[in-house]
Amino acid sequence: MVQLPALFCLRFPRLCAEIKMCAENPENCKRKICGIGRALYTGLCSVPGCKNPQESQTTIGFKFAAAESCAQLRELVGSSCYPNNRDIEHLRQIEVAKAKAKTCLDCFSRAIR
């Protein structure tokens, strides 16, 4: 079992270097992780919401997953990266994403009838 981290680091040297950097400098690591979180939710939040139940179930499912992930990532980044500074626009965008997800669920339920 002791050899497992060494084997992991042989297979994934960049990841191990990042983990080591985070252990040595947690504040720098936090900035990097928060930046990655923002980049991820920006892409997911830009996926358009569901407009009609005539879209394929796969498309509706993808849009639902994007909206749910957008809301969850925004909440995670907000609470982890800016716990004392939650801005109104960020909170509004979380509600927009949740509304998109609900609309997709409604479209999906109409599509399978």
Give a short overview.
The protein starts with a helix and ends with a helix. The longest helix is centred in the middle third of the chain and has 25 residues, at 57-81. With 113 residues, the protein is an all-alpha fold.
Task: Please characterize this protein's 3D structure.
The protein is mostly helical. It contains 5 helices and no strands. 80% of the residues lie in helices and 0% in strands.
Keywords:
single chain; 113 residues; mainly alpha; 5 helices
Give the helices and strands as they follow along the chain: HHHHH
Subunit arrangement of the protein: single chain
Helix share bin: over 70%
Give me the secondary-structure category. Answer: mainly alpha
Q: Beta-strand level of the residues, as a percent range?
A: under 5%
Count of helices?
5
Rounded Rg: 19 Å
> Can you give the mean pLDDT?
86
Q: Sum up the overall morphology in one term.
A: flat
How many distinct beta strands?
Answer: 0
How far apart the termini lie comes to 52 Å
Query: Uncertain runs with pLDDT below 50, 5 residues or more?
Result: none
User: Major sheet: size, sense and barrel closure?
Assistant: none
